[in-house]
Every structure is written in structure tokens, then in C-alpha cells.
Design goal:
SH3 type barrels; seven-stranded antiparallel sheet; 1 helix; mainly beta; 7 strands
């Protein structure tokens, strides 16, 4: 009995890996800690549904199969607000990378203690000039 292109599953761990692989989302752009992202979240209020945009800096990313998650931090009226998003959640409509950050750490928890301009992350801005390809310019984020 041939299964075609499906691999043969031997153990429970292989079955779990196959199910997790089928639940991964592939429509997200590549992002990393330090990037400024805009997350479009579906919010259901009663019977109505709307999309709310949450923009901030990715301070952590966990890559663990179907339970991938990332933490986004933003400043709202002078108060730091962090939100954890599951990458496989159907509540996330879209993820946009606004700017790529230049950081040397995987977890940016040190930004929690920083206030004002000290909480900014160096950013890369990609400029394309005709005939010269792309160049990277180091700037500071305007937050």
C-alpha cells in the first residue's frame, strides 16, 4: 500500500512533528529581535470584528515549532506596554516589518529599564540608488 509523497510515520514524535509542520504559517516576512514591526490583530467585539494595529520593537522571539511566539514592546503615553503574540494564531491578520534593527542580543530585555532616547535601537534603512545597488544607512528610530 503506497502513501504517495507522504513520509512513513514510525513513532509518536514523528506524528507530532508532522502535525506541527502542517500548522506553521509561511506568510510572515522574516523578522528578528530589534526590528520595528506592525502587527495587525483581529479583535472581536460582540458580533463585529475589526483589525487593530500594534506597532513596536520585537524584544524577544521564541522558535519552538508550532508554538512560535514573539514579544513586541511599545511606549503608550509614556508607559511601556508589552504584548506576546503566537505566530500560529489566527488572530494575527498580517505582520509588517517597518525597520530592521541593529542589535547584538537575542533578547532585548534591557530595554525595559531604559527611558526616552536610551530605549531606542539603531536601525538599518535600505536605500536603493540606480546603478549602485543597495546600501545600508545607520539611523536611530524616532521613538
Amino acid at each position: 500500500m503506497s502513501r504517495g509523497s507522504q513520509p512513513r510515520i514510525k513513532g509518536l514524535a514523528d506524528k507530532v512533528a508532522l502535525v506541527e509542520a502542517s500548522q506553521l504559517r509561511k506568510d510572515f516576512p522574516p523578522y528578528s529581535p530589534g526590528d520595528t514591526v506592525r502587527v495587525h490583530v483581529r479583535i472581536k467585539e460582540g458580533e463585529k470584528e475589526r483589525i487593530q494595529v500594534y506597532e513596536g520593537i520585537v524584544i524577544a522571539k521564541n522558535n519552538k515549532g508550532a508554538s512560535k511566539s514573539f514579544i513586541v514592546r511599545k511606549m503608550s503615553h509614556g508607559v511601556g506596554v508589552e504584548r506576546i503574540f503566537l505566530e500560529s494564531s489566527p488572530k494575527i491578520a498580517k505582520l509588517e516589518v517597518m525597520q530592521e534593527g541593529k542589535v547584538r542580543r537575542a533578547k532585548l530585555y534591557y530595554l525595559r529599564e531604559r527611558i526616552g532616547k536610551a530605549a531606542r535601537v539603531d536601525q538599518y534603512l535600505a536605500n536603493t540608488i540606480e546603478g549602485q545597488g543597495s546600501t545600508s544607512v545607520k539611523t536611530q528610530s524616532p521613538q
